[in-house]
Structures are given as C-alpha cells and as structure tokens.
Design goal:
three-stranded antiparallel β-sheet, single chain, about 200 residues, Ribosomal Protein L22, Chain A
Length: about 200
C-alpha cells in the first residue's frame, strides 16, 4: 500500500518521509510545521534541538490559547515531545536523501501535519482519546547561488574620459589666454590714444 502525500511537486531532486500515528498533539505539530517550513535542514534540526532543551520557543499563531509571552517571540510554547518526534523524522528524511544521492545542502520545502485516528485509552484513563498525528516532510536540494557577472568598463570609455577632460581644460586655458590678449590690446590702444592726445596738445 502506497502512502499518500499532500505534496505533488517534482520528486526528481526531492526526498520525503512520513510519520504515521505519532503520539503527539496535532495542534502543536501544526505550529511546529509552520516554524520549520522553508528552513535549511541543518538549521531546522538545530532549532528542534534547542526547543527540546527549552532554549528556543516556538511561536504559536493559530492555536495560541494558554500560550504565554516569550521574549523575542510573543505568544509561544516549548512543545518538547512534538519536537523530538519531528527531529527523528528529519533525520529519516536526511538518510533518504543520502540514499537517493542528493547533495547535503537540503531545504525543507514541505512539512505538514494531519489529524490521525484517535483510539480510546484503556485502564484507569479509559474513555479518553489518544493524541495521534500524521506528519510528512519533503526536502529538496538547495539551489546554488549564481554569482552576478561584474561589469567591466570598456577600454574605449576609459580612454574617452581623459581626452574629454583634456579638451575641457585646453578650452578653458584658451579662453584665459584670449582674455589676457584682449586686455593687453585694450591697454595698448589706451596708451596710443593718450600719446596722440599729448602730441595734439603740444602742437
């Protein structure tokens, strides 16, 4: 009998694992799945390890009744039992990926929890329903980072800029020279006019 998954993407570069009838709360499993979805597999495992030892709280956004405030998180809890079950499932999917020949850099692209059958307890706790949850995980090879090609300035552009600057500089120098020449010519004309006036006065 084949196990049915809610994930229907391309499985050529993916590995998956399914945990059936796990003895954990479905509500806590749903919040944990939201917490892990989209993370690299190594970071997801490290986060679950911290949750197990109560070093990191899981934010509860949907089933937040009775959840106290945690620093930097808001409403959250420490689902220790559910974190242990999901950590075991992540290790299984990692071994499945290694057996399939995938790279070690994996990302959790899909993880979800479904409510399973709830058998009744027996003995002293008879009449109570057991907590059972199905959890499925799908990991995929992380896409490689593409380096953007650096733009190189063409030699023609690099050569044109100094020439343009030189032309501007030479133009400015020429204007200054023209101004000096104009001033000198004006002074000479004044001197000649003064000399002519003096000669006319003497006569």
């Amino acid at each position: 009998m084949k196990n049915k998954y809610a994930f229907h993407g391309d499985l050529s570069s993916c590995a998956r694992a399914l945990g059936r009838d796990l003895p954990v709360s479905t509500k806590q499993a749903v919040e944990l799945c939201r917490f892990l979805r989209g993370k690299p597999l190594s970071k997801a495992k490290a986060a679950l390890e911290r949750v197990r030892v109560r070093e990191e709280a899981v934010p509860f956004t949907r089933f937040s009744e009775g959840a106290g405030h945690k620093p930097g998180v808001g409403m959250g809890k420490f689902p220790v039992k559910a974190a242990g079950a999901l950590l075991k499932l992540l290790r299984q999917v990692e071994s499945n990926a290694q057996q399939k020949g995938l790279s070690s850099e994996l990302v959790v692209v899909h993880v979800c929890a479904h409510k399973a059958a709830r058998p009744l307890r027996y003995g002293r706790h008879r009449g109570r329903e057991m907590k059972r949850t199905h959890v499925e995980v799908v990991v995929k090879e992380a896409p490689g980072k593409k380096e953007k090609p650096r733009r190189q300035k063409s030699t023609s552009q690099a050569e044109k800029k100094p020439e343009g600057l030189k032309e501007k500089k030479t133009g400015a120098v020429q204007k200054k020279d023209d101004k000096k020449e104009g001033k000198g010519a004006g002074k000479e004309a004044k001197k000649e006019s003064e000399k002519s006036q003096e000669e006319s006065v003497k006569q």
